[in-house]
Amino acid sequence: MGAEAFPNNGDIEIASAASPHPLIMGLQPVALIDHVARVDWSLLDQIPGDRGGSIPIAIQELEYIVGEVKSHMLVSPDDASSLKTIAGGSVANTIRGLSANFGVSCGIIGAYGDDEQGSLFVCNMGFSGVNLSRLRRKKGPTGQCVCLVDALGNRTMRPCLSSAVKVQADELTKEDFKGSKWLVMRYGIFNIEVIKAAIRIAKQEGVCVSLDLASFEMVRNCRLSLIELLESGDIDLCFANEDEAMELLRGEQNGDPEIALEFLSKHCKWAVVTLGRNGCIAKHGKETVRIPAIGEAKATDATGAGDLFASGFLYGLVKGLSLEECCKVGACSGGSVVRSLGGEVTPENRQWMYKQMQIKGLPIPDIRNC
């Protein structure tokens, strides 16, 4: 997708996927394909583990679930498409959103397999204008995840990543980060060595680091390692949802989101806690803001809501907007993706997002063919 420059856009860089030095770089060690489907509860009763959350499964289990999806799909009158197979993963969602919806020059670091899923990941991300020059192709399978969405929009995720190819810590080089201003990452204990290596090199190159806390399960199970990472002072921006925030300070002040925000802000220049239907709270320096959610957003599928909130917030930062405005753009962006299935904003919902931004007096990106 081509892009036109913002008028008087300050430091923001608008460029095609061919740009050698993307403004924002995402690190997703394992390329991932999401199989997203709206299904009835009977299928959810058949899969491993309880409903909700994210529990790793073997490839045989994933293939079984995908095979059963067609006979359990929900088809609503206003959404004939009840199954999507697209590039997924939190970082990929954020980077794709920044590129396709806001025209920000972005790239992604990671690895994909020499299979059909790998080709699909590359095609989807490339079509969205993401620079793929730092994406390694390796022999082996690409990661996959089945995302089952019930009638109420709740998600049950079952990833298969154990045998997937990934980028290793010792493969990262300064060239991966050269010329970029931001590095976007998702916390994960299985990728902790890659994360630490990326942060070390990014800081050497003068790149700011954004970290998403991933999931309340990840925070609960790997809390000490996460706190050590935050207390290093190397994380410039941190995103957490309400559940993650409560787990972060479990046993302290009842895990109140505002207490968690204060904790994050002591170690990060920008701290954001999203509160679902209650909007978000954020802090930068001595400034704290609370922003309501977009009331006009009808939730069909919560997949990617936090990821696209991050897209909007980061767009606001590189655009030089205030903390309050960054949160408002994030709310518009996150609200746009929940209106349809999957973690990618449709052209129709992109226009809805621009309308919401216009109503709130926020700068709208000038992107060709939006």
TrEMBL record:
- What keywords would UniProt list here? Kinase, Transferase
Record Gene3D superfamilies: 3.40.1190.20
The UniProt GO MF terms for this protein read: kinase activity
Residue ranges that the Swiss-Prot or TrEMBL entry lists as coiled coil: none
* Carbohydrate kinase PfkB domain segment(s): 70-343
**Protein family per UniProt:** Belongs to the carbohydrate kinase PfkB family.
Q: What is this protein called?
A: Carbohydrate kinase PfkB domain-containing protein
Which organism was this protein described from?
A: Jatropha curcas (Barbados nut)
